Each structure stands twice: as structure tokens, then as C-alpha cells.
Amino acid sequence: MLLANLAFRFGAPTLRMFAIARACSEGAIFLGVTIREFLRDSGLSQDETVLLASACAGIVVVCVCVLLWRSERAVNADWGAAGMEIASGERVVGPRERLILRCEQLAQMHGLTARETEVLTLIAQRKTRSEMEQELFLSQNTVKTHVRHIYAKLDIHSKSDVYELIGQ
């Protein structure tokens, strides 16, 4: 979920991030097999304390892997290979990118500043004012001012008008 959040927030290439995550999990499996072979070859696998400790460590590792696998499956369903047309291999614009492009079009048509465009995009993403303040590192009054300017330039009066204008 952390990778998905990073990819969403910063528009990072998700396939590369998930390939790295997959390589790390495969490396952990290889490490586990190597440790097992070492214990077997060194004769430590006969010691009950070592067996108990390795069994406990194995259970913890399996639980962590199951949790990662479950979240990875959900993340791959939402983020994995999305954005690629299977037949042609061409890039497909996703819903978030369409939303951002629509906000940028509106901003150009109505003369919004760069900061107002950012605020408009966050409104379109249904962010609260406090979330906008935190994400953009702005004060409450500054966000209110930007929202007021956006509404005036777009000739609208509420968030629902923004949603209609954007087509959500």
C-alpha cells in the first residue's frame, strides 16, 4: 500500500516500483533457503533450541509474507499493469491523469494561476480544506482565498459545481 500511495501521489512508474518489491521478496525467499541449507550442512538443525528459534522466525516471516501478498494482490489489481493496453502495448490514460488533465484544461481556459490549478485539482479529488492545507503547506486563509478566486474565475459557487464542471 505504501508503494501504491507513492505511485499515486507522485505519478511514479508503478511497474518499476513493483518489480523492485517483487525482487526483494524473491531475494528473501532465496535467503531463507540458503539459511536452511546452512543449518542442515552445519549440523545445527539437530539442536532443539535452534529448531525452535528457526520455527518461530519462520512463522513470523510467513505471516509477514502473507500480509504482503494479500496487499500486493490488491495493489496489483488496482495499480499493477494498469495503464497499458494488452493488445497494442500502448499507454492508456488512467482516471487520475484524466482528472488532472481536465483541471489543467479548465485552468488554461479561465486563467487560473499554477497554485489555483493545484487547489482545483485537490478539490476535484474531493480533498477537504485541511487536507489541502497539509498537502500544499498553506494556511487556512490562503486556501480559502485560492478557493474563492477559483470559484470567481470559473463562475461557480460550490464544490458540487466543480464536480459538475469537471465531469465527475
What topology emerges from the helices and strands here?
Blueprint: H1 2-10, H2 14-42, H3 48-79, H4 95-110, H5 114-124, H6 129-136, H7 140-154, H8 159-166
Helix pairs in contact: 4-5, 5-7, 6-7
Characterise this structure.
The chain has helices at residues 2-10, 14-42, 48-79, 95-110, 114-124, 129-136, 140-154, 159-166. The protein is mainly α. It has two domains: 2-79; 95-166, Winged helix-like DNA-binding domain superfamily/Winged helix DNA-binding domain (Arc Repressor Mutant, subunit A). α5 (114-124) crosses α7 (140-154) and α6 (129-136) crosses α7. The longest helix is centred in the middle third of the chain and has 32 residues, at 48-79. It is elongated, with a radius of gyration of 24 Å. It starts with a helix and ends with a helix. The model has no long low-confidence stretch (mean pLDDT 80).
Q: Summarize the amount of helix as a percent range.
A: over 70%
Low-confidence stretches are: none
Distance between the termini: 25 Å
**Count of domains:** 2
SSE arrangement, N to C: HHHHHHHH
Shape: elongated
Strand content: under 5%
Mean pLDDT: 80
Whole-angstrom Rg = 24 Å
Q: How many alpha or pi helices?
A: 8
DSSP strand count: 0
Main sheet attributes: strand count, strand direction, barrel closure:
none
Structural class: mainly alpha
